[in-house]
From TrEMBL:
InterPro entries from the UniProt entry: AAA+_ATPase, P-loop_NTPase, Signal_recog_part_SRP54_M_sf, Signal_recog_particl_SRP54_hlx, Signal_recog_particle_SRP54_M, SRP/SRP_N, SRP54, SRP54_GTPase_dom
SUPFAM superfamilies, per the entry: Domain of the SRP/SRP receptor G-proteins, P-loop containing nucleoside triphosphate hydrolases, Signal peptide-binding domain
A Pfam family it matches: SRP54_N
Reaction catalysed by this enzyme: GTP + H2O = GDP + phosphate + H(+)
Protein name as catalogued: signal-recognition-particle GTPase
UniProt lineage: Eukaryota, Metamonada, Preaxostyla, Paratrimastigidae, Paratrimastix
Main location: cytoplasm
Length: 449
């Protein structure tokens, strides 16, 4: 998962609250210490970690006055609040609107993942119904033209570039004019990647911005630089008005936490979580912290279900889920959706602890093949459900032992797999009851809490 290392350390630290019989100051201090250490190991700036420590202590002191409170809950709340504040960008990023021209200019250092993110961004908004197009104004790096052209073809959006022209300002202007006249909602302009010391390229970035007047300048930053993200963002901001930030490569870097905290001084809009064009997630502090602490991301999950039109495809599913009436047929629809989502890992990360853990275990320990392994097992589940009778599919109860052996025989799967399927069904049913508790209605909206 995103920042998996940091997440599991934080979860372990908070776990001590649960596992200790007597919650004295010694344990509480130890929990706070572990949390701070985990953040420092993720390369979060030490001063910010100290601020977090003080903020947790302050809120505990204040709450200690109000006797009768559950201490475990108080400490947990104080930690969640302090972490949320630490990861919160403070102000919302630019949001493009359909039905008007939105010009988005991408900037960043070479290798940060900028060109890949341009395609991810186009892909994301195209799925939301925007008419998107991309322009290559990177005349510096050989190969930039064909990379973006190919990326654009893969996500099926029109591309503009001039391979022989060396004037990025002229190309950017021509592309923006052409797509504006053609009525595109979202025109995404990729610019040359730079090195920090390259003043000429920084100047060029400013000229492009002055010429095309972007509605949003998106700064793409690689999370592996850790807390150095702060200085990098500052260097770019001194030249152009950065209005959004995308932090990339959060799928595999121990320093990601540091980069994210350092970058939160800018409005983070997306996180890059893999090389694939759909491996980019909207950044939302609440969802992010929930997932980081193993609490699942119900909002993210419902958004994903909506994005995939789950409600139209399986209208009864969300209703059943939220009414706590979850059949094997519903489980089949959910698992089908996971398989269509492309990334099982991404879906799993949104699940609350036990469900997420179940699927993670199912994927095996090999991170590189996790999705493939997980999909193979899911296919096994599908085969079992294909051999179920209509009565079994509509059942909300665990299957009896005789049915388990019959299904194993009928589907050619091991009975362990049938047991695992029953376990998955149980976990989802419980998750459904949680959704009910959160006040999620069948249309997928979340009532503000
Ligand atoms: P640019 O020079 O900034 O345009 O960078 P590219 O878009 O060419 O990306 C550089 C490398 O980073 C490529 O191999 C990308 O596939 C990879 N990359 C980009 N974003 C991500 C991400 O979020 N996660 C991972 N793991 N790799 C990424």
């Amino acid at each position: 998962m995103v920042l998996g290392d940091l997440g599991s350390k934080l979860v372990d630290a908070l776990g001590k609250l649960q596992s200790s019989m007597l919650l004295d100051d010694g344990i509480i201090n130890q929990v706070i210490k572990d949390i701070c250490l985990a953040l420092i190991q993720a390369d979060v700036n030490i001063q910010q970690v100290n601020e977090l420590r003080q903020s947790i202590k302050r809120s505990l002191d204040a709450n200690a006055i109000a006797a009768g409170h559950n201490k475990r809950v108080l400490v947990r709340q104080a930690v969640v609040e302090a972490l949320s504040k630490m990861f919160d960008p403070g102000h919302p990023p630019f949001q493009p609107k359909r039905g008007r021209t939105n010009i988005i200019m991408f900037v960043g250092l070479q290798g940060s993942g900028k060109t890949t993110t341009v395609a991810k961004y186009a892909n994301f908004y195209k799925k939301k119904g925007f008419k998107c197009a991309v322009v290559c104004a990177d005349t510096f790096r050989a190969g930039a033209f064909s990379q973006l052209q190919q990326n654009a073809a893969k996500v099926r959006v029109p591309f503009y570039g001039e391979q022989e022209n060396k004037d990025p300002v002229a190309i950017a202007l021509a592309g923006v004019r052409m797509f504006t006249e053609e009525g595109f909602d979202l025109i995404i302009v990729d610019t040359s990647g730079r090195h920090m010391q390259d003043t000429e390229l920084f100047e060029e970035m400013k000229q492009v911005a002055d010429a095309i007047h972007p509605n949003d300048i998106v700064f793409v930053m690689d999370s592996s630089i850790g807390q150095a993200a702060h200085d990098q963002a500052l260097a770019f901001r001194q030249k152009v008005n950065i209005t959004s930030v995308v932090v990339t490569k959060l799928d595999g870097h121990a320093k990601g936490g540091g980069a994210l905290v350092a970058a939160t001084q800018s409005p983070i809009v997306f996180l890059g979580v893999g090389e694939g064009f759909d491996q980019m997630e909207l950044f939302n502090t609440h969802s992010f912290i929930s997932r980081l602490l193993g609490m699942g991301d119900v909002q993210g999950l419902v958004a994903k279900m909506e994005e995939m039109d789950l409600e139209k495809k399986h209208p009864e599913l969300i209703q059943n889920l939220t009414e706590g009436r979850f059949t094997y047929k519903d489980l089949r629809s959910v698992l089908e959706t996971f398989m269509q989502a492309g990334s099982l890992t991404q879906m799993m990360d949104m699940m609350p602890g036990p469900v997420g853990k179940f699927f993670h275990d199912m994927q095996g320990g090999d991170a590189a093949n996790a999705d493939r392994e997980g999909f193979l097992r899911l296919k096994g589940f599908m085969t079992i459900m294909d051999s179920m009778t209509e009565e079994e599919l509509n059942s909300v109860k665990p299957l009896t032992a005789t049915r388990v052996s019959r299904l194993a025989r009928g589907s050619g799967q091991h009975s362990r797999m049938v047991q695992a399927l029953i376990e998955a069904h149980k976990l989802f049913s419980r998750f459904g009851s949680q959704l009910k508790g959160l006040g999620i209605n069948p249309a997928g909206d979340i009532n503000p809490r």
